[in-house]
Amino acid sequence: MLGTGCCCCPWLNGWPFLGGIPAVVLGVLHLQKVKKGEATSAWLGWVGIILGVLALIGAIVGLTTNWGDRIQTEYDRQF
Question: Is 0.90 surpassed by the pTM of this model?
Answer without folding.
Answer: no
